[in-house]
Design a protein that fits this description.
The protein is mainly α and about 240 residues long. It has 7 helices and 2 strands; from the N terminus they run ααααββααα. The chain has a two-stranded antiparallel ribbon. About 25% of the residues are buried.
């Protein structure tokens, strides 16, 4: 079940500084041309300085760099502490608590802050008076598209880190290191929940966009057979691609 009203009040537009750096909302200005008139070729990072400039470039092009930074900070910190805790922390309980706290902070931040600010999506599970639980999805107004850098980096984080934790679970099982398996399973639950929730929220947002587009065809005088054809084509196309 999805919410009928978009997040007009709770999902904020991009920062004014970013709007001044873009010629079209949601599109980043192309790099300056070279002397030959063609676009400047993209170069891969060959040293730590290039890598740092690449990360700094991503943050500069982001509409919400602080939100994007903490999205990756909590996730990388949780995996880093989990892998290196045996070398620096001999106390199993202390290392487990640190990893669990980082995972909980990442789960809350991704669901309530990063998803809302970076891609304009939010979800939660709600229980009605009859005791039945269902998913609720909210999305930003389609007329305010997400920043392409924010959107790309958000979905990379959402889909990549569950795979990393799955690989760590396989390694723990192969090494018979069963004491850390509950932590990895908890990390998978948190990460997979966010991945599934935002995937369905994104699908729900696209379905709303298709319904609004189809209804706008009727409002513009495309009723009758033409309006029915447009409605059917849009709904079937979106359902085939995202269903």
């Amino acid at each position: 079940m999805s919410s009928s009203a978009p997040l007009f009040e709770t999902i904020e537009p991009d920062e004014p500084e970013y709007e001044q750096r873009t010629s079209v909302p949601g599109n980043i200005n192309p790099p300056p041309p070279t002397q030959s008139g063609g676009p400047r070729p993209t170069q891969m990072a060959t040293n730590p300085g290039d890598a740092e400039s690449g990360i700094a470039g991503i943050l500069r092009q982001s509409a919400h760099p602080l939100v994007l930074f903490f999205l990756y900070f909590f996730r990388i910190a949780a995996i880093t502490v989990y892998i290196l805790c045996g070398f620096f922390i001999s106390n199993y309980v202390l290392s487990s608590v640190i990893v669990v706290v980082l995972l909980a902070m990442d789960f809350w931040n991704c669901r309530n802050v990063a998803g809302r600010r970076l891609v304009g999506l939010r979800y939660w599970n709600q229980v009605d008076d009859d005791g039945e639980s269902y998913w609720v999805f909210e999305s930003r107004d389609p007329s305010r598209p997400a920043n392409p850098i924010d959107s790309k980096m958000f979905w990379i984080a959402v889909y990549t880190f569950p795979l990393l934790w799955l690989a760590l679970l396989i390694v723990s099982l192969l090494k018979f290191n069963l004491s850390f398996v509950p932590i990895v399973v908890l990390a998978l639950v948190f990460n997979v929940t966010n991945a599934i929730g935002f995937t369905y929220a994104d699908r729900d947002a696209k379905q709303k966009w298709a319904n609004n587009l189809a209804s706008s065809g009727w409002n513009m005088g495309m009723g009758g057979l033409g309006g029915q054809i447009l409605t059917g084509v849009v709904k079937n196309s979106v359902g085939r691609v995202f269903g």
